[in-house]
């Protein structure tokens, strides 16, 4: 696997942890009444997500964010499983896999130079 592809995948994982984690922290602060510290930490994590996305090797904003959408879908389900005991059904899993296939096509399909 090319170095740029490995770097891109790693950046998508870091971005997912920052964005999904940030949103979860805000959710906990507001919906679970954990307070402003949780909300503030979530806002900081969401800002980190925005920065991490800019580090992708591909320079096309639309492509990066479109592909990240699929990472977000799959990552959100995984986060819910780990952090909240969410039990995805087969349709959740199928949908997440379809999204990840879409990510692979959008980001890593061969393109003319």
How is the topology of this model organized?
Elements: H1 3-31, H2 36-53, H3 61-84, H4 90-108
Helix pairs in contact: 1-2, 1-3, 3-4
How many DSSP-defined strands?
Answer: 0
Helix content, binned percent: over 70%
**H/E element string?**
HHHH
Number of helices: 4
The radius of gyration over CA amounts to 15 Å
Structural class: mainly alpha
Labels describing this entry:
single chain; 80% helix; 0% strand; flat
Written overview of the protein:
- With 113 residues, the chain is mostly helical.
- It has one domain.
- Helix content is 80%, strand content 0%.
- The chain contains four helices and no strands.
- It has helices at residues 3-31, 36-53, 61-84, 90-108.
- The longest helix is centred in the first third of the chain and has 29 residues, at 3-31.
- The two termini are 18 Å apart.
- The relative contact order is 0.13.
- The mean pLDDT is 95.
Task: Describe what is shown at a glance.
By secondary structure, the chain is mainly alpha-helical. 80% of the residues lie in helices and 0% in strands.
């Amino acid at each position: 696997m090319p170095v740029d592809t490995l770097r891109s995948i790693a950046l998508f994982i870091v971005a997912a942890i920052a964005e999904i984690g940030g949103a979860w922290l805000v959710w906990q602060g507001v919906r679970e009444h954990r307070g402003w510290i949780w909300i503030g930490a979530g806002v900081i994590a969401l800002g980190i997500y925005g920065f991490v996305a800019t580090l992708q090797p591909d320079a096309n904003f639309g492509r990066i964010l479109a592909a990240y959408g699929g990472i977000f879908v799959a990552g959100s389900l995984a986060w819910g499983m780990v952090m909240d005991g969410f039990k995805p059904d087969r349709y959740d899993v199928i949908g997440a896999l379809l999204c990840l296939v879409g990510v692979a096509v959008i980001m890593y399909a061969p393109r003319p130079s």
